[in-house]
Design goal:
2 copies of one chain form a homodimer. The first copy, chain A, is of the alpha/beta class. Chain A is built from 10 helices and 11 strands. Chain A is elongated and about 60 Å long. The relative contact order of chain A is 0.14. Chains A, B: InterPro entries: Alpha/beta_knot_MTases, Ribosomal_eL30-like_sf, rRNA_MeTrfase_TrmH, SpoU_MeTrfase, SpoU_subst-bd, tRNA_m1G_MTases_N. Chains A, B: One of its GO terms (molecular function) is RNA methyltransferase activity. Chains A, B: Keywords: Methyltransferase, Transferase. Chains A, B: It holds the Pfam family SpoU_sub_bind.
């Protein structure tokens, strides 16, 4: 049953759903005609006035189903009852997939970013923005250990999160192991690595692991790494912002003459 | 008189002074043995306890002169009476210079960044951090129009502001005109430019003008530009974060094989 085509299709659909919460973020989603919304969710406790009334009217004018829920049920849908303000909307993100589903379809020279403890929402949003703009085929993201895909991330991504190739996984080390089994290089970005990002031009697939700004790449991810890569720095600068590092990775290929 | 060697030496000294304010930022400066501090300034109204007592003791142990001032005089020194918390310290930044003094000393293939309306302190700090780490010989900065060099900028720069090659100018268009007169290229970063940053490899000196995130490069700076440069973007992404753009410029040369 759990392997039936209907089940898999349904699951693949829900993997692509990002639930956006908060009155202003939800209004902005509904005002964007490029975003496909699956359903609007409202708490029964909302008063039908102001922004809530605008939100409902906009959803109805776009033929988006409107569901009402108890406050508790809505908190389960938004996953953030403290900040959802009684409002959430399911947005379809066409490029979101489960990593294990996407793996067989990756191009032979795939370039992936792996997020290993990106807890600052601003940095996470900027990474997504640069990865979407540059040459990155997928962003490996586990919910545990990274910032949640909430309003701060969406804002810092300048709305690019909705079209970013986010590859969802349960455990980053597990996903990296699958990459290695497919003969992909797993590169841990680390200031003390001897080889630089710019010296390394992989022939096959490659995953670049970005660690936490303070802690660096975690031991679990490091265990799966096939090499370390550094970015050269002058003037005694000890590290770059992690979103800057991600952007240099996303554009390193474009900067090389073909 | 104003052109005497003593006057010019004194002026060049004060061009290199960055006044840091706020109790925690000042304490952090004093705790960093790599930073050369010229003087500590305290408001007479401070109570001599807690952080203020620690700050004074630390300055005295480092033989840094301690001056006390009226609240108003201290606000003039800190340039931010609302947030200085009665404490300021003058830090010597060896790579800070007046742009007009630095211009004759620039290398023939100098790479400069020009900041044209970077009002977000986080972005300004990140730009400085990447410029200091990468291949940038100077950062053209006018106080007017950009975020002030305050605690948020220092934090976002990860402390690299103190050693960054900041070139101070009164008016950015005026400084860009001087660059043009020295046959430097003045490149305005703009999403709609036909040439890309990666296609352009200047033989001589070059200034890259970074505009405001919302407004882009200002008309006054645009008038001095000799060309426009874009960064290619996929997936319909319309722009990159300005600090990311700065970082790609700072590393574009390093990414090219020599």
């Amino acid at each position: 049953m759990s392997d039936s085509p209907e089940y898999r299709e349904r699951k693949a659909f829900f993997d692509r759903v990002l639930t956006v919460y908060g009155r202003k973020p939800v209004l902005e989603v509904l005002q964007n005609p490029q975003l496909h919304c699956h359903a609007l969710h409202l708490a029964q406790s909302n008063r039908e006035q102001g922004l809530v009334r605008d939100i409902r009217a906009l959803a109805e004018s776009r033929d988006i189903p409107v569901n009402t829920h108890s406050r508790e049920a809505l908190a389960r849908i938004s996953r953030n009852g403290r900040q959802d303000q009684g409002v959430a909307v399911d947005v379809l993100c066409p490029a979101f997939r489960q990593f294990t589903d996407a793996l067989p379809d990756l191009p032979p020279r795939a370039r992936l970013l792996a997020l290993d403890g990106i807890t600052n929402p601003q940095n996470l949003g900027m990474i997504i923005r640069s990865a979407a703009a540059g040459e990155i085929d997928g962003i490996l993201y586990a919910r545990g250990g990274n910032a949640a895909l909430g309003p701060l991330v969406i804002k810092a991504s300048a709305g690019t999160l909705y079209r970013a190739p986010l590859l969802l996984c349960d455990s980053l080390p597990g996903a990296l192991r699958l990459c290695r089994e497919r003969q992909m290089e797993v590169c841990a970005l680390a200031a003390d690595a001897t080889q630089t990002l710019f010296e390394f031009n992989p022939d096959g697939g490659c995953v670049y692991v970005l660690g936490n700004e303070t802690e660096g790449v975690s031991p679990g991810a490091l265990k799966e790494a096939t090499r370390g890569l550094a970015i050269p720095m002058r003037n005694g600068v000890e590290s770059l912002n992690v979103a800057v590092t991600a952007s240099l990775i996303a554009y390193a290929g474009l900067m090389r003459p073909t």
